[in-house]
Predict the 3D structure of the following.
Amino acid sequence: MLTRAQTDSYQENGFLVLKQLLQETEIEMLRQELDWMIDSAPIHLGASKNRYGQAVANPGDYGFTVLDQANEHQVINRISNPLARSEVVLRTYGHPKLLQAVTSLYGSDFVPFAESIVIKMPENGASFEWHQDGNFKTGVQPVRGVNFGIYLYPSTQDNGCLHVIPKSHRWGQVNLKSMVEKHGQQLPNSIPVPVDAGDIIVHDRNLIHGSFVNTSSDLRITVYFGYHRRDTIVNVFTPEHIHQRAQVIHLAIQHRAESNLAMSEEVGLPMTTNKKPFSLNQCQPEISRFSPAEKAEILRVPPLAI
Ligand SMILES: O=C(O)CCC(=O)C(=O)O
């Protein structure tokens, strides 16, 4: 669980850094998985094969930055639907400390918004324009979701760390185009948020944030998991759509419980709440009866985008 000081700081500033929430062994597993996912990516946007000539399933999950229109030089910058693509990422999604942290902010009735992995390749890492997340489909509301960014490598100003404007989550929808026209890319009161590998940046989706290019020789990778408080989206999506997305959490908890990762959470050190598999109030026993095809379908239910 987060402390009162942490939740207060999140409410006040619109973001929070959680130091070393995940163990080094889990971060290392994610690094290896991402090495493989990047290595086996489609060769460019729209391509269906990787550099080994093998077909890539759902190649549209991979996003690229076009560095040079003339020679079509592209560099990978994002992988969407990572829970469907990777058992390793799915297990991390069921991490009890992570889910308890979400509960500390939103209570136990939260639902997944969307997941993706941001990649800033050495020397060629894409920038992300100043923005607030989403489309403001539900208008300007104080609660429009939260993003948890898990850092697999240290993130510094040199490799394009996240920049934020603290407290800007309370400004409503901001005209960032005119702000940038007026001030340039260094927006007033913006700050870099450098972190270590294993840290998590939690940020409100209303917060103004962005990041600059990576010109360093260091890789930056951030695994993003986003969540909504259920009551903020019930009038926007069908109950079935929300239910289907919520099933992802139960699926992840189940997969983690069946993995070696959960062994160390249940046995091993003293039984604190952080060492037990996470459980939500609303039980979804049907998950355990789903076929692999049904599970695969659940993992590709479209995001609850607002
Ligand atoms: O991780 C970053 O540098 C920014 C990514 C971001 O804000 C986004 O994907 O919406």
Observations:
- The domain at 4-298 is CATH 2.60.120.620 (Jelly Rolls).
- Residues 267-274 have pLDDT under 50 and may be disordered.
